Amino acid sequence: MAQTLRPNTAGSLFATDGKGHPMQDALLGVTLVLGVVAFVTAMFHNLHLLSSWAGLVGIATGTWGHVISETTRERFGLILGLGASAIGFFLGMAHGGLFGGLW
């Protein structure tokens, strides 16, 4: 049982299999940042362009990251980012959409 006392130092923070996943971690980070931006800016009616576009791109990166993710930790973060991106996207669409007020 000595192996249970050793910390897992190999790989990335979100990898539970001991291997590094730089592509998945990058997509996770981008999705989380876009999700936070979309969610926060969706609370302001005049920022609907930013919230809808950030949400749309966050949904796309989160979906692709979820397709290629290899560990449960990565998938958990991606689902959080996808949810925030989707809420921001839908509220941004309700406030004016992707091109509202430009045409």
UniProtKB/TrEMBL annotation:
It comes from the Bacteria. Keywords: Membrane, Transmembrane, Transmembrane helix. The chain crosses the membrane at residues 26-44, 50-69, 76-98. This is Integral membrane protein.
